[in-house]
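User: I'm preparing a small set of examples for a lab meeting where we compare how different chains pack in three dimensions. I only have the primary sequence for this one, and I'd like the structure in token form so I can line it up with the others. Please keep the answer compact; I'll paste it straight into my notes.
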Amino acid sequence: MKILLFKMLVYSSIGIFIEVVFTAITNFLNIIFHTLLEWFRDRKQSIKELMKKHITKEELKLKGYSYLWMLPCYALLLTFVYEPVYDLIINYSIVYRFIIWGLLFSFFEYCWGYVCWKLSGNAPWQYTSGIPIPKDKGWTALYLIPLWSFVGLFLEWYSCILRQIFN
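Assistant: Understood. Below is the structure token output for the 167-residue chain.
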């Protein structure tokens, strides 16, 4: 029981870590993208001037964030869903595993968004740009499927290390 709880804590930690890094990087890239978009629309200012205007010292801190709601999400998903699925598909080609991880993580993200919405009346995240799944209140987005696929493949390596430690 202690090993299971510790494993859930470790999985929650890596999930939160990945999320904080991801939000810091994507927020910064979003600022750069919008700055470049502004430059393409109206080339009255140089890119350098626009970057100075939009990228402040605060943005350069690369602040990332997560939500406490995600601790049980990562603990449950990675311990009770990810590992059993990994055991089932370990011998599949990397292409099939890539597809399975992307779809599974997107599905779980949608479900967890629904759970949070039912419990609190709000989901911690809501995708309002890009390609949200129709009629889902922004709980998941199609453009994240490849990202989730890469996360799934990375976690295969991480899961193997955890299994060596705990077994």
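A couple of notes for your slides: The chain has a mean pLDDT of 86. The chain is about 70% helix and 0% strand.

User: Perfect, thanks.
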